[in-house]
Amino acid sequence: MTFYARHRQPPQSWAGYVDGWVMDMQARGLSEHTIEANWYRLTCFARTQTRGPDEVEPSDVQAWLTGERIEASTKAGRRASVNEFYNGACG
User: Fold this and answer.
1) What is the DSSP letter of 50?
2) For each of the chain's 91 residues, which pLDDT tens digit applies?
3) Contact assessment for residue 34 and residue 25, using Cβ atoms and an 8 Å cutoff
4) Cβ atoms within 10 Å, residue 40
5) Are the C-beta atoms of 46 and 53 separated by less than 8 Å?
6) What is the reported pTM?
7) Measured between alpha carbons, how far is 58 from 77 in angstroms, rounded to an integer?
C-alpha cells in the first residue's frame, strides 16, 4: 500500500512498517493532517538512513535532529513523529 503518493516515498525496507503505522494512526482516529505530517517527517528521516527501521540507533535520530540548523519547533515536530513511530509500529 502506498500512502501520500505525491510525496517522495520511504525506502522499500521501511515501507511496510510505515504503512502499518499509518493504518494504526487512522484506527486511533488521528486527523488526516496529523497523520500526513507524521508520515512526511518520518519518511524524511527514513530517507537519510542506511539501515532498516528495526536497526536504527538513538544516535541516528540525534544526528538527524542536529545535522542541520532548524527551528526548535521543527526539531520538536520531527522528534515527536519519530517517537510516535517507534512507540507504535516498532515499539
Assistant:
1) S
2) 667 777 789 999 999 999 999 999 999 999 999 999 999 999 999 999 999 999 999 999 999 999 889 999 999 999 999 999 998 766 5
3) yes
4) 15
5) yes
6) 0.88
7) 17
